[in-house]
Amino acid sequence: MEDNNVQVTNFPDGRPQRVQPRWRQDFPIDLEADEYGARRDFTKFMVLTSLAFACGQLWIALLSTFRGRSPREQRIAAVDDVQVGQAVGFHFPTQRDPCLLIRQSENEFLAYSSLCTHLMCPVRPELEQGRLHCPCHEGYFDLGTGRPIAGPPRRPLPRIQLRIDRGIVYATGVEERAS
Q1: What string of DSSP letters covers 127-179?
Q2: pTM of the predicted model, to two decimals?
Q3: How far, in Å, are 1, 70, 104, 162, 164 from residue 74 at the CA level?
Q4: Could you give the strand order of the β-sheet that contains 148-150, starting from the edge strand earlier in sequence?
Q5: Which residue pairs, CB below 8 angstroms and at least 24 apart, start in 134-143?
Q6: Is the pLDDT of residue 66 over 90?
Q7: Mean pLDDT of 126-137
Q8: More confident residue, 47 or 40
Q9: String of b and e for 58-85 (b: at least 16 CB within 10 Å)?
Q10: Residue 151 exposed, middle or buried by CB count within 10 Å (0-12, 13-18, 19+)
Q11: Where are the alpha helices (DSSP H) in the chain?
């Protein structure tokens, strides 16, 4: 005959089953099994966390590799298509990067990113006043340099490097500038 009063569970506090709290009586787990599971769970956690960090580092390395490349040269407009004192919008180096090409004089072209360096609102050219205006927070940038002259922006607009060849204006790179 089998003895039903024999305690088979070794509780963590060492007390018999009849004095254990109700929740522990309902889910009796041996101390050894509990520690074994905890070590196993901890090992799983550490392995998965390390794998996640390794994947994240690999992702950052890949992004840095591709981001470091200089963008391909891109045709913006023909010189004759942009009148003196006129601004033309374009995207460079990707379709998600809006920019402005500004013709200041017969032979002088400027180009800047058209996203305000404060909170990325699109800037509007105010060529008569010689500035670019961010209407979101009343920020102003100098048209000749792209540096902030008023409002909350602290960093200058990224300048787009240009090349003019045979009557065509090309964007060749982006010059990130500190304040």
Answers
A1: GGGTEEEETTTTEEEETTT--EEESS--SPPPEEEEEEETTEEEEEEEE----
A2: 0.64
A3: 90, 12, 21, 10, 11
A4: 124-126, 131-134, 139-142, 148-150
A5: 141/112, 143/102, 143/104, 143/110
A6: no
A7: 94
A8: 47
A9: eeeeeeeeeeeeeeeebebbeeeebeee
A10: middle
A11: 22-26, 31-67
Residue type for position 129 = Q
Each residue's pLDDT tens digit, 119-129 = 999 999 999 99
Residue 78: is its pLDDT beyond 90? yes
Give 121-129's long-range contacts (Cβ < 8 A, gap of 24+): 122/98, 123/157, 125/87, 125/100, 127/85, 127/86, 127/87, 127/102, 128/85
- Cβ neighbors of 127 (< 8 A, separation 6 or more) are 85, 86, 87, 102, 143
pLDDT range class, residue 1, cuts 50, 70, 90: very low
Query: For residue 1, what are its two tokens?
Result: 């005959």
- Give pLDDT tens digits for 42-57: 899 999 999 999 999 9
The position carrying tokens 């039903």 is 4
